[in-house]
Specification:
By secondary structure, the protein is an all-alpha fold. It is built from 3 helices and no strands.
């Protein structure tokens, strides 16, 4: 996002960072009562694909000319 603002000239108020929480397989986090993430085993495969597709479809319906940039974070490990 900083690159779009600094180098691309896109005003920062036109950018919105979004994190899609798809769970974790880290047992310590799953059992931590103050963990703020989704305390559910990480979704994968077809369920993950359907979730992402639903998100993208909803965003594109609301903002037809949207630019979505993806950065995949590694799965958390115990």
């Amino acid at each position: 996002m900083a690159l779009y603002t600094a180098l691309g000239g896109i005003p920062p108020e036109h950018c919105l960072p979004v994190l899609l929480d798809v769970g974790t397989d880290n047992e310590a986090l799953l059992n931590d009562p103050i963990y703020i993430g989704w305390q559910h085993p990480r979704i994968r495969g077809a369920e993950y694909d359907e979730f992402v597709e639903a998100f993208v479809s909803a965003v594109e319906k609301r903002w037809p000319h949207i630019l979505l940039q993806w950065r995949t974070l590694p799965a958390s490990t115990p």
